[in-house]
């Protein structure tokens, strides 16, 4: 038994080292598209609640006008969940971790002191993107005299874990699950060159001129900053692309975004804080709107860094 335990430990350590090396290696340029028969979902995947093609931040705030603490579900699909959260001044979330995947957070107003176990705490304000490694306990504390508002993204299969050291009572059960005191194995995630702990997007990219790149790139969660200048909205004949097996959504970080989704009215000038979703298998084409030359950023979120994009054959060479 001791020999088997040691062997498992060596295998786990070797696997962890391989993952770190893979994460730090430069990502190769994507290969040229190959013409294939690609399955396209039919009929359309429906927008079941709470999913919408366009969740306006103004509408979310109106739903909770006058409340200090609230949460609003925005995205629910097979792979990912995402919600708006607001927390009043001086309040702090319960310390928790998530079972198997990273947590991505975009802070939108107020200030949050982010305390991630094993890392120096930091205060995040509007435009901060935060990446909490898997199985690492963390808390979010509102500092200052204003509520803090943030957008939080998880893998749909992840479950909350609560450290026994900071939890005085057994957590309340959730539907289909009963909390038990157990040893949690498998190790914890760490920040790395591809998945940093945080990015002050407005300071580092908008003001500092750093290149907008993927912020989280790991299997089951891809959070990709895409930045560019406003251009005339392409014609409807430009279909864009579709994804075979998953939904994709975008958080508007800067400027405006136009989005054409198959079967839906054209979305024009989505504003910062808005969230747009293209359901699985639907053609979609995003572009930056607003005054000519205005810079825009959309944060594209889906479960696969190397997800398949299906383009029309006629668009060959224009991807």
Automatic annotation (TrEMBL):
Keywords linked to the UniProt accession: Signal
Origin, by domain of life? Bacteria
List, alphabetically, the PROSITE patterns matched.
TAT (PS51318)
Report the leader peptide range.
1-25
Q: What is this protein called?
A: Cupin domain-containing protein
Give the species this sequence originates from: Sphingomonas citri
């Amino acid at each position: 038994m001791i020999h088997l335990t040691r062997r498992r430990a060596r295998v786990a350590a070797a696997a962890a080292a391989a993952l770190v090396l893979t994460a730090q290696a430069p990502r190769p340029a994507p290969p040229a598209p190959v013409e294939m028969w690609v399955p396209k979902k039919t009929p359309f995947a429906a927008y079941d609640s709470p999913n919408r093609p366009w969740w306006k931040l103004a509408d979310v705030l109106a739903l909770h006008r006058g409340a200090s603490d609230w949460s609003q579900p925005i995205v629910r699909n097979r792979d990912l969940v995402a919600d708006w959260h607001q927390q009043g001044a001086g309040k702090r979330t319960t310390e928790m971790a998530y079972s198997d995947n990273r947590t991505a957070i975009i802070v939108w107003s107020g200030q949050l002191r982010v305390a991630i176990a094993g890392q120096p705490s930091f205060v995040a304000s509007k435009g901060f993107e935060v990446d909490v490694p898997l199985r690492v306990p963390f808390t979010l504390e509102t500092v200052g005299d204003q509520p803090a508002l943030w957008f939080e993204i998880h893998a749909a299969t992840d479950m909350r874990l609560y450290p026994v050291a900071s939890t005085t009572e057994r957590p309340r059960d959730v539907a289909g699950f009963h909390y038990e005191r157990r040893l949690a194995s498998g190790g914890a995630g760490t920040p790395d060159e591809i998945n940093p702990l945080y990015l002050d997007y407005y300071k580092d990219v908008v003001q500092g001129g750093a290149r907008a790149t993927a912020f989280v790139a790991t299997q089951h969660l891809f959070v990709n900053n895409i930045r560019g200048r406003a251009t005339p909205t392409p014609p409807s004949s430009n279909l864009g692309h579709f994804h075979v097996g998953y939904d994709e959504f975008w958080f508007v970080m800067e400027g405006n975004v136009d989005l054409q989704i198959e079967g839906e009215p054209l979305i024009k000038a989505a504003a910062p804080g808005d969230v747009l979703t293209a359901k699985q298998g639907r053609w979609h084409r995003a572009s930056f709107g607003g005054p000519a030359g205005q810079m825009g950023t959309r944060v594209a979120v889906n479960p696969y860094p190397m997800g398949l994009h299906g383009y029309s054959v006629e668009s060959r060479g224009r991807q």
